[in-house]
Amino acid sequence: MLYREAGDFSTTYPQDSQTFPIRFDRYRYYFVLAVAVLVMPFVMNDYLVNSIFLPFLIYAIAAIGLNILTGYCGQVSLGTGGFMAVGAYACYKLMTSFPDVNIFFHVIAAGGITALVGTAFGLPSLRIKGFYLAVATLAAQFFLVWLFNKVSWFYNYSASGQINAPERSVFGIEVTGPNTEAWATYLFCLVFTIGAAVIARNLTRGSVGRQWMAIRDMDIAAEIIGVNPLKAKLTAFAVSSFFVGISGALFFAVYLGAVEVGEVFGIQKSFLVLFMIIIGGLGSIFGSFAGAAFLVVLPVLLKLVGVDMLGWPTDIVAHFNLVIVGGLIIMFLILEPHGIAQLWRVAKEKLRLWPFPH
Amino acid sequence: MKMKLATWATAAMMAASPVMADLVFPSLSYRTGPYAAGGIPIADGYADYFTMLEERDGGIGGVMTNVLECETGYNTEKGVECYESTKGAGALVYQPLSTGITYQLIPKATADDIPIHSMGYGRTSAANGAVFSHVFNYPANYWNGASGAINYLMSQGDIAGKKIALVYHNSAYGKEPIRTLEELSKKHGFELMLVAVDHPGQEQKSQWLQIRRERPDNVIMYGWGVMNQVAVQEAANIRFPMENFIGIWWSGSENDVLPAGDAANGYKALTFHGVGSDFPVFDDIKTHVVDKGLAAGSGDQIGTVLYNRGLYAAMLAAEAAKTAQEIHGTAEITPAMMRDGMEALEITEAKMTELGLPGFGPSFNVSCENHGGNGLVGMTQWDASSKTWSLISEFSESDMDVIQPLIDEDSAAYAAESGIEAGC
User: Fold this and answer.
1) Do the domains B20-141+276-375+405-418 and B142-274+378-400 sit in the same CATH topology, yes or no?
2) What is the pLDDT of residue B21?
């Protein structure tokens, strides 16, 4: 009744090949966008934005980035934390070196710099595959963190090695620094998240994405049918690192405001983003969002329920949090290895056939 | 989507609940994770002192207190979440208990007009109150600690030409003393050797191998959490003489030396407050808190070094609240009033005796220009046979001739970076 093609006729090719070919799906998408852009800014407060929405939006960008590399192109990466650090430090250096340039361009430039670094670290992927590539990206993770800790040029020679985001504004409204409004930071990150999702979705639907998926499914076969593995793998690394770099820049500049590389962009960050795409669904843009939401919102929700509603001691709740999140991850991997995105896909299939499933 | 709605509903409920009229003291604790061994006693001490004030005196100035505990796990992201979720409840002062979280909160709390008390940690140059209006780090900071250690060594003999190693946690916290020690090494002519240990510090074989090879005369350690125990153990393994090994106050608790057993005998650590439970206030804690079954946590930490530190932090916060109540003539103070109270805080020997803590810490006073107190530090030593720490020196002055220019330089850099007009 709700979600079906019946009565929804395409008369042109563009109509047939659009992202959401089903009318209901399309309207739902516009509705979500409208709520996110037009309604949410008015109900935003400091708590919601800093505890839930900023981490959700920023992790969603990182998850999209890693999903392109791992989910679409099949190259396992454990270097996400390191690449986020590249984005953050690039953004910091740009912000402090060129204070007159708009922060918006700094974030994009930080993404570009990360893309270059990511491509450089992607070069070994032409020779090594699978677990061995994972180890190579792990080396990138540790090398980059070590580099940002060791070379004081990256943190402008400050005594503590911390980087602090100075105040910057867009259209006269501050988006970084301490005096920001909740809605401004939310909208600033939302713009990047929507942009990243739209670009990623369309890239993966086009010829580039098809090359990535061909490499993922079987690289030798892909090479035989004319896919250039060098180009496909390196573009995947570049695009993926670009998004991861943007998320790192936003993570530092807008969300945290001060960053210490070893603590914030350590190996656990790489694993967190990897868990997001595994739980959300490999090879799915929606899955990136679902996974980010799952791992950002669940701990906050458990804390709200445990500490504020039930009044349990904070350490018990923190331990329960680990148990529940860990248990859910295992449950998901057993019951639905393709992640939340697959649940969504199955639900859509069911809706299409409802009420006559046979 | 569903999950988001549920969170929303809960968050809305929280926002809708009435504002409590209590004096709210949030406690950003960490009872889980690699630093829990240090976090638990501090959180217990902090909570127990306020419980005792409530039970014995009926709160502060007649207003009940409320210690809001929030688990950070020593993680900056969770720290930010904790800050945002507790500040709406009228939090009077934040004690982030982590240098990383402190850095994060300095600009945020200043913008929200809520004071921060980073006691013996955080950004050292926050001692300059003209720049850091809402951040306090009395009674002593990292640089006082570094200078205190060197002063202590000088009192033991000439240090010119000697080699001193700094074993530090490779983070903002551990890097803090480097500049001070470099200046001091120029001034006093000792050789400084830097040895970094990465988080969490479980593995330090190579660092101690380096120390064994280069044979420094003394080792100073800026460590925290599991790193301390490992370092003490490794020092014992290479038979480094323990009396030449000095930890900062975050590397000088029972947790750090007990695992090494007798081998840790003689290990020294700096401190800015008293050790042991031989103070009258502990009798009150026993009668009003422990015996009534109100002790925080499992109640087995009372009298340990870090418990005392939590208690001391709570005492200073309560005294600042009292001062604020006097200044503004109202019992129900706001965070802004609390800030004024902290800035006018005066801790004298007579006041501490009155509170049941005679000689527990140095006497000091805070002013607008100086948020760091007088920076007096003492030295403690571990006795492995009786399993006690004991104070082996007076609380004495550190070398402000070296430290003050560094504070001025670093705070000026911060002021320039964030566009702050320095002034009192």
Assistant:
1) yes
2) 66
pLDDT at A357 over 80: no
Residues of chain B with pLDDT under 50: 1-7, 9-20
Kindly report the number of other CB atoms within 10 A of residue A26's CB atom. Answer: 14
Q: Is A329 part of a structural domain of the chain? A: no
- Per cent of chain A over pLDDT 70 is 99
Model pLDDT, residue B381: 94
Q: Which amino acid is at B94?
A: Y
**Contact call for residues B248 and B265 (beta carbons, < 8 A):** no
Which of residues A303 and A58 earns the better pLDDT score? A58
B61-75 burial, b at 16+ Cβ within 10 Å, e below that, comes to: bebebbbbbbbbbbb
Which chain B residue is nearest to residue A269, measuring alpha carbons? B77
Return the pLDDT at B16.
42
Tell me the percentage of chain A whose pLDDT exceeds 90: 50
Supply the pLDDT for residue A1: 55
Is A348 within 8 Å of A3 (Cβ atoms)?
Answer: yes
> Nearest-5° angle of CA B382, CA B304, CA B314?
130
User: What is the longest distance spanned by two Cα atoms in chain B?
Assistant: 69
For B191, list phi and psi in degrees, rounded to 5: -95, 130
| In a domain? residue A15 | no
DSSP string, B156-210: HS--TT-EEEEEEESSHHHHHHHHHHHHHHHHHT-EEEEEEE-TT----HHHHHH
All residues of chain A having their beta carbon less than 8 Å from the beta carbon of residue B69 are 313-314
For residue B108, the chain A residues in CB contact (below 8 A) are: 178, 257
Helix, strand, coil percentages, rounded to 5, for chain B: 50, 15, 35
Burial B291-320 (b: 16+ CB within 10 A, else e): eeebbbbeeebbbbbbbbbbbbbbbbbbbb
Specify if A248 maps to a domain. Answer: yes
Best probe of the B interface among A54, A97, A263, by most B CBs < 10 A, is A263
Q: What amino acid occupies position A354?
A: W
This complex has an ipTM of 0.84
R_g of chain A, CA atoms, integer Å: 21
Choose the mutation target among B68, B71, B75, B135 for the interface with A, i.e. most A CBs under 10 Å: B71
Distance CA B184, CA B176 (A): 14
pLDDT of residue B341: 92
pLDDT of residue A47: 87
Cβ neighbours of A103 (radius 10 Å)? 25
Identify all chain B residues contacting A158, using CB atoms and an 8 Å cutoff: 413
The alpha carbon of A346 is separated from its chain's Cα centroid by a whole number of angstroms, namely 23
Residue A246 in any domain: the answer is: yes
Domain residues of chain B, as ranges?
20-141+276-375+405-418, 142-274+378-400
Which one of B32, B108, B175 has the shortest CB-CB distance to A178?
A: B108
- What single letter denotes the amino acid at residue A100? D
* Structural domain total, chain A: 1
Whether the CB-CB separation of A213 and A227 falls below 8 Å is answered with: no
Residue with tokens 């504002």: B19
pLDDT for B44: 93
Domain housing A152:
44-266
pLDDT in tens, A32-67: 999 999 999 998 888 888 889 999 999 999 999 999
Superfamily of domain B20-141+276-375+405-418: Response regulator (3.40.50.2300)
Contacts of residue A116, defined as CB under 8 A and 6 or more positions apart, other chains included, come to A238
Instruction: Specify the higher pLDDT residue, A246 or A335.
Output: A246
- The CATH fold of domain B142-274+378-400: Rossmann fold (3.40.50)
- The C-alpha atoms of residue B94 and residue B25 are separated, in whole angstroms, by 7
CA distance B291 to A172: 59
